[in-house]
Amino acid sequence: MTKENMNNENMLSEKLAHPPKNQETESQQIVYILDTNILLHEPFAFLSFKEHDVVVPMTVLEELDSIKDRRKDVSRDARVAIRALEDTLRDASPEQVLAGVKLPQNDDLHPSGCLAIINDYALEQTAHTLSFNENDNRIINAALHIQKKMPHKKIVLVTKDINMRLKAKGAGLAHVEDYRTDQLIDDIQFLTKGYHQFEGDFWQQIQSVDSEVEGRNTTHYVDKETVPLSYINEYLLDEGDSFAGKVTGFDDEKVAILDLGRERLLAKTAWGIHPKNVYQGMAMDALLDPNIDLVILTGPAGCGKTLLALATALEQVIERGLYDKIIVTRSTPEIAESIGFLPGTEEEKMAPWLAAITDSLEVLHQQDESMHGSLNYIMDKANIQFKSVNFMRGRSIQNALVLLDECQNLTAAQLKTIITRCGEGTKLVCSGNLAQIDSNYLTAVTSGLTYIVERFKDFPGSATINLNGVVRSRLASFAEENL
């Protein structure tokens, strides 16, 4: 190691080992080392650690640099992260960058930590470090180096790469974590289902009720203690199959419940499709409601998410004329890299990944073939457009019904990008199966689908339905339950 590198290393150690006096508290004795995927997941992630210190290895900057010029959706996130780091370090000298630069203060109660760059290429390799021939290893070695230099500090490597977390633990790093700032729940079993099921008969649990009839709709006003933790557009069921309703409003004392009736839910129809269970009935009610702008459908493979979304979309575009077109898109890990090499138009390039959509269209065509023309006629009549998620950024979508399939593979930031594209008169349907995540860096609790379910549960213009039960076939149902 050269004398210059030793001096830089000592500057970083001195700065992080001896924080300013107003920061000498137990809660501030943490140094976070960020992996590249953290800054791709959230470009401003280095600002999220409040009073704690953050270190970015040089290898991370090089990986961001190699990604920023690729023709991928993630390239934008790399560029944003690089600009954010540059804005923070712009006025700092090289010595200050290595020693640590004060981050913008979060609030008056929590002083901010420091951001430092460490040259992990210049660290001395010892018998206690991994080989330097892989980027992940160099980042882990940087964390091990800081841990050795500052044993009184809690050194934490933050990465979304599960295998890298295992390697770091095996190499001797004491603390390795996932990035959980945008994680809203700790266990997927606590995810909002969009409905609440009462034990026994609903009316047996109601002590007092005021009802109001308006046209064909009946609204019941019951005591709030009867329906705890209610959300707008949350559906209510009971085990006695005698009641089905939806929360339409509440205050400190009362909850307003629109009486839907199980029979009426099961009698709903769209493009020749009828619900096969009460969960599909609730989904169709939300999908056909013009006052709901966002419908989130979760559930296992074969529960009918895509078929119901398409059937209700065709019904509202062709039969009711509520929207001008249907835009169908989905997320897939390979799409960003592979779509440009496929021949044909954007729709033709998307065809291999949208086979599930076209399969559902064929089922709907066979279901209602006598009433409507050929499959191509239906697609033209509904103005169905197949789009890549990559090209949704920057658009403003008006008067359309957007179907976003397989969105369990999207991050919260990616879903925010798509949701904010929806303009006036546009309805968005997000569907996905949290048990089938293909992304290397997402789990059921960190998926963007989980994030929006929890974030939008209080929004009066959205509804979530967990489609409980596989209806595709008895084979699919047995596989879902037993494999």
TrEMBL record:
Gene Ontology molecular function: ATP binding
Superkingdom, natural source: Bacteria
Keywords: ATP-binding, Nucleotide-binding
UniProt region (Disordered), positions on chain: 1-23
Annotated signal peptide: none
Polar residues composition-biased segments: 1-11
GO cellular component terms listed in the entry, alphabetical order: cytosol
Record keyword Mitochondrion present: no
InterPro entries according to UniProt: P-loop_NTPase, PhoH, PhoH2-like, PIN-like_dom_sf, PIN_dom
SMART domains in the record: PINc
PIN domain location: 30-166
Homology family: In the N-terminal section; belongs to the PINc/VapC protein family.
Name the record gives this protein: PhoH family protein
Origin species: Colwellia psychrerythraea (Vibrio psychroerythus)
High-level lineage: Bacteria, Pseudomonadati, Pseudomonadota, Gammaproteobacteria, Alteromonadales
